[in-house]
Amino acid sequence: MSKGTFLFGAAIGGAAAYAAAFLFAPKSGEEYQRELKDKAEMMKESSSDYLSIAKERGGDFKAIATDAAIELKTDIQLVSKQLAEQIKMDSQILKSDLKDVKDGVPGSKENLKANLMDAATEVKYTAASLKEQVSQTTSEAKDISLAVIDEAKMEIDETKAENSSVTNF
Hints:
Blueprint: H1 3-24, H2 29-103, H3 108-162
């Protein structure tokens, strides 16, 4: 082997060793600090995104609860008013029936009994109507809440996907 070939091979080997050492050498402290700082900033942004989603969805749930409470209050007020009017009418009819019973009017006891049954039926119907309205309002609020939860999960998944590089050091 000639001296020139050996030196040429040594130079090529040295250059390859230098390149490998440069490529595989650990990063400097400054590089690690800069990389950690960048990753910390990305994590801060990611947590800010999650906080934003949580605040927005919290506002959505508050609005849903407020709307449901207002609707329930309105339903209860309406039914209460109807019930009060119904009781007022029924009490006048029953008062008249009681007077007839007291005066000994024929058939007045049967009439009083029938009117009492009608009044009880009307109260049961009104209560069932209110129960149905409350159930429907509650169901609607639940459905809307579940939709908001699903939407929030999708937003969180999207945020996770966008920020997946944060955890990939």
